[in-house]
Amino acid sequence: MKRALVLLLALLAFAPLAHADPDNWIAYKQPVIAFIHATIVDGTGAAPKHDQTLVIVKGRIAELGPTADAKVPTGATVIDARGKTLLPGFVMMHEHLFYTTRLSPYYISPMPYSFPPLYLAGGETSIRTTGSITPYIDLNVRDDIHAGKRIGPDIDVTGPYLNGPGGFTEDLPRLTDAADATRTVDYWAGQGVTSFKAYMQITRAQLKAAIDAAHVHHDKITGHLCSVTFREAADLGIDNLEHGFFVATDFAKDKQPDQCPKGGAESIASLNLDSPEVKSLIELLVARHVAVTSTLGVFETSVPGQPEAPQAALDLLNPTLRDLYEKVWKKAQAAPGARATIEQAAFAKATRLEKMFVEAGGLLMGGSDPTGFGGVIPGFSSKRQIELLVQADGFTFPQAIEIMSLNAAKFEGRDKDIGSLTVGKRADVVVIDGDPMKHVGAVEHMPLVFKDGVGYDTAAIFKSMRGQIGMN
User: Fold this and answer.
1) Shortest CA distance to 372 belongs to which of 299, 422, 428?
2) pTM greater than the 0.85 cutoff
3) Which residues pair with 26 in a beta bridge?
4) 364, 373, 346: which is closest to 285 by C-alpha?
């Protein structure tokens, strides 16, 4: 019965949304638009600036400065932004174009129609699909968006997971040796993917071959690792590590070469953050310029005491997936005392490690990763990541926005064009109703997102997508 249900969901995933009219999502498309009296958080980590005017001309930021000194072009469409905060479009580094159904092994349902506009509605104007199950879908969606055939963020397409035997789904490749890793990278680089991701069961030899092959193609490679430690991966030349320090196996006492240890959460929960081994690992990552991607939202779902996904996000799930999420979330909340203590301690220490990494000079980026047992939902997961960077990691709001925008733009080599609100850059602008410096939850109120100077009505997108996740 479960198999039949998921096969039906997979078939429905390839049917375009019948009732969605993307033209209804566009609120502003005028060539010249001026926001006046706005608060600006520019993405550089700098303190906010108040009573500012930002002028968009033909999709670029043409002027940004105090409203009293601004020259609004004649004929501009003027938006009074009193009480609003403008942010740069988010550059998110761990997104997917699939959703997890949790009915293993039939685990994945492609979401090529619903996810791109939902990501955009959550402020994400550029994303990396960090690990692909269906690379050709990701490539075609990317190309369609670039050609203006559909609406969504720019997409850096990551190739299929680079993994040895094992993994969470039968859709994953199974590398046999280092030569196979090289062939796989070479093939997908030739097909147009622009980054790669190593996965949990990869060996050091396979990872080294994949890193070297990716670098030959001038592509970067990241990893959600387990069998290989963070230190080993850094020594091999990896560019990026996923999931903060939640999945680091460097501190597991039973770690064996090329094998995943048991009790990953336990090793983080019991970790002495002041130990020399912690300091040494962070120093190594910083010295080797290995970036780290924070994905707090997906780990939060397993921590008793953390909130459920918001109602508006759950409304986007089809009834089957919503029911699955509700059941598993309640089970996670009711975890036995010892398990709950471990999960809570691991979450607290892993978030502290992210802050320590940044304080040591490391490049931290943000992602949402809509996997796990559900509840990490495009359109809302980006907002939650910001909230957790502030509430759990202890960053200021401007620092959190820098992590979510300019840091990733720098990693992607695109910081001259995107990642901050700067004159000359592309007009990717997120509009917030309220002051998130006073209350970070204000990011939940995001009525407009501009990409390339075109403003999208987020409420209209969400209305079109109710019940669609799991269907399209």
Assistant:
1) 299
2) yes
3) 456
4) 364
Q: Contact 34/76 with Cβ under 8 angstroms? A: yes
The SS3 of residue 442 is helix
H helix intervals, 294-423: 296-300, 311-314, 319-333, 337-359, 381-391, 397-404, 406-412
Q: Give pLDDT tens digits along the chain (472 positions).
A: 344 444 444 444 444 454 567 889 999 999 999 999 999 999 999 999 999 999 999 999 999 999 999 999 999 999 999 999 999 999 999 999 998 876 555 567 899 999 999 999 999 999 999 999 999 999 999 999 999 999 999 999 999 999 998 877 777 889 999 999 999 999 999 999 999 999 999 999 999 999 999 999 999 999 999 999 999 999 999 999 999 999 999 999 999 999 999 878 899 999 999 999 999 999 999 999 999 999 999 999 999 999 999 999 999 999 988 998 898 889 889 988 899 999 999 999 999 999 999 999 999 999 999 988 888 999 999 999 999 999 999 999 999 999 999 999 999 999 999 999 999 999 999 999 999 999 999 999 999 999 999 999 999 999 999 999 988 8
Domain boundaries, the chain: 131-412
Question: What are the structure tokens assigned to 159, written together?
Answer: 């190739």
CATH number among 3.40.50.450, 3.20.20.140, 3.40.630.30, 3.40.50.150, domain 131-412? 3.20.20.140
Kind plus residue range of the DSSP H or E element containing 225: none
